[in-house]
DNA sequence: TCTGGGGTCCTAGGACCC
DNA sequence: TCTGGGGTCCTAGGACCC
């Protein structure tokens, strides 16, 4: 049995945790640079605001309805996420954190110990609410995809009240028949549209298809999804938690950037992030993809990218930052108003399989990296960093509606006044 | 609902080779 | 000069997720 536990509109709920005054109000959260609406609390959902639609298009609607607007406060969300995940982990000894607010639990071996899955799900919900004031939904199912479907039912379909269990043929059919294809994990809008033409409307319709035929018509992903909907585990536990094959860090700027130092500083910060993530999953990269671009809505769209190939695979921040410096002049062009840039590690291999070059000694310094990671882990992210990542700070993003970092910054700690 | 964020995976198709 | 075959590698773009 698998479970999927996630928060109800996590970012919006997180904003309400330390600000009880807005708990009964409609709240939305915007993406980086306040570009799009990315979280809509259940109260605000009544206004039919399109999720991931551009903010400027709904600005008027939000103002008219006195909707509370917040910029993404990742420092706060990451910390609340940690707290929430730790609580959920108490309920199962194998947890896979899938995203900032979702985790899969795999109840392998103690399926017979839990008599009442509904009750167990409600206990998880109550505990998380009591300790964090975050509302969560819980779905149980025999495969990860069915657990996802149950989670959808728990939160979106009437009569479930936050917990849904697929543990029989009847419950599977009942839930899948009430879900459209588009609500199935792995089926997006495009695929749903094509499926509709084939008269495949509900999740149940999709489950009735021949997996092989679906592979031929679409892809292996759809084939797997169909099997999973029928209780055949394809995304087995090892797959769900597999190492990433690509790691990217990209951002758009709060204002257009023209100076080379600002662009370079941004790229160095991205490469630092990518190197950290590589070391965290014990991978090395053969290649680094580096790009910068002007705004997509500008008259003349400019995008320049470069793939840097390392003589031997690396996850060393210094080595990777040098690569950025080396190709920087091929990407930067004076006069361009840069809007976005980023770095990606592609073609990853596990540290275990590292092959040293007989003739070229690797420039990596694993001990230095280990020291850097230890210090940053102990004293906070970014405590120790490359000087070149601090040269120019004009590349930061806009966050005009930012709430305080209640839990991660001393001066933002909530104050309680007594009379 | 053509979408002003960010991240990851998959695949079609081009380049090149024998 | 065009076309037939078959394989690998690489890249851009499609599609999905939150």
TrEMBL record:
<dbReference type="Pfam" id="PF11799">
    <property type="entry name" value="IMS_C"/>
</dbReference>
<dbReference type="InterPro" id="IPR043502">
    <property type="entry name" value="DNA/RNA_pol_sf"/>
</dbReference>
<dbReference type="Pfam" id="PF13438">
    <property type="entry name" value="DUF4113"/>
</dbReference>
<keyword id="KW-0741">SOS mutagenesis</keyword>
<comment type="similarity">
    <text>Belongs to the DNA polymerase type-Y family.</text>
</comment>
<keyword id="KW-0742">SOS response</keyword>
<keyword id="KW-0227">DNA damage</keyword>
<feature type="domain" description="UmuC">
    <location>
        <begin position="2"/>
        <end position="188"/>
    </location>
</feature>
<dbReference type="InterPro" id="IPR025188">
    <property type="entry name" value="DUF4113"/>
</dbReference>
<dbReference type="Pfam" id="PF00817">
    <property type="entry name" value="IMS"/>
</dbReference>
<dbReference type="InterPro" id="IPR043128">
    <property type="entry name" value="Rev_trsase/Diguanyl_cyclase"/>
</dbReference>
<keyword id="KW-0234">DNA repair</keyword>
<protein>
    <submittedName>
        <fullName>Y-family DNA polymerase</fullName>
    </submittedName>
</protein>
<dbReference type="InterPro" id="IPR017961">
    <property type="entry name" value="DNA_pol_Y-fam_little_finger"/>
</dbReference>
<dbReference type="InterPro" id="IPR001126">
    <property type="entry name" value="UmuC"/>
</dbReference>
<dbReference type="InterPro" id="IPR050116">
    <property type="entry name" value="DNA_polymerase-Y"/>
</dbReference>
């Amino acid at each position: 049995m698998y479970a999927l536990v996630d928060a109800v509109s996590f970012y919006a709920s997180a904003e309400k945790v330390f600000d009880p005054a807005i708990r009964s109000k409609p709240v939305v959260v915007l993406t980086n640079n306040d570009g799009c609406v990315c979280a809509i609390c259940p109260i605000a959902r009544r206004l039919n605001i399109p999720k991931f639609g551009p903010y400027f298009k709904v600005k008027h609607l939000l103002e008219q309805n006195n909707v509370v607007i917040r910029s993404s406060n990742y420092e706060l969300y990451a910390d609340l996420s940690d707290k929430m995940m730790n609580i959920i982990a108490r309920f199962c000894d194998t947890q896979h954190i899938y995203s900032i607010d979702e985790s899969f639990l795999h109840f392998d071996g103690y399926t017979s110990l839990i008599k009442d899955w509904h009750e167990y799900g409600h206990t998880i919900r109550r505990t998380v609410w009591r300790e964090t004031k975050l509302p969560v939904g819980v779905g149980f199912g025999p495969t990860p995809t069915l657990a996802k479907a149950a989670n959808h039912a728990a939160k979106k379909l009437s009569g479930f009240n936050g917990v849904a269990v697929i543990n029989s043929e009847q419950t599977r059919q009942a839930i899948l028949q009430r879900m459209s294809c588009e609500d199935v994990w792995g089926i997006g809008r495009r695929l749903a549209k094509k499926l509709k033409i084939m008269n495949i409307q509900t999740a149940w319709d999709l489950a009735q298809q021949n997996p092989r035929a679906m592979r031929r018509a679409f892809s292996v992903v759809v084939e797997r999804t169909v099997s999973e909907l029928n209780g055949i585990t394809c995304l087995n536990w090892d797959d769900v938690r597999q190492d990433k094959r690509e790691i990217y860090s990209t951002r758009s700027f709060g204002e257009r950037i023209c100076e080379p130092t600002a662009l370079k500083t941004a790229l160095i910060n991205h490469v630092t992030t990518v190197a950290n993530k590589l070391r965290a999953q014990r991978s090395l990269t053969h290649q680094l993809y580096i790009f910068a671009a002007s705004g997509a809505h500008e008259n003349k769209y400019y995008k320049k990218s470069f793939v840097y190939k390392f003589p031997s695979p690396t996850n060393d921040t210094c080595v990777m930052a040098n690569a950025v410096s080396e190709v920087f002049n091929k990407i930067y062009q004076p006069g361009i108003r840069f809007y976005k840039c980023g770095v990606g590690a592609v073609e990853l291999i596990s540290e275990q399989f590292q092959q040293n070059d007989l003739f070229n000694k690797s420039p990596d310094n694993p001990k230095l990296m280990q020291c850097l990671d230890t210090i940053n882990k102990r004293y906070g992210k970014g405590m120790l960093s490359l000087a070149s990542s601090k040269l120019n700070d004009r590349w930061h993003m806009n966050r005009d509606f930012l709430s305080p970092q209640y839990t991660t910054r001393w001066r933002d700690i909530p104050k309680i006044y007594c009379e």
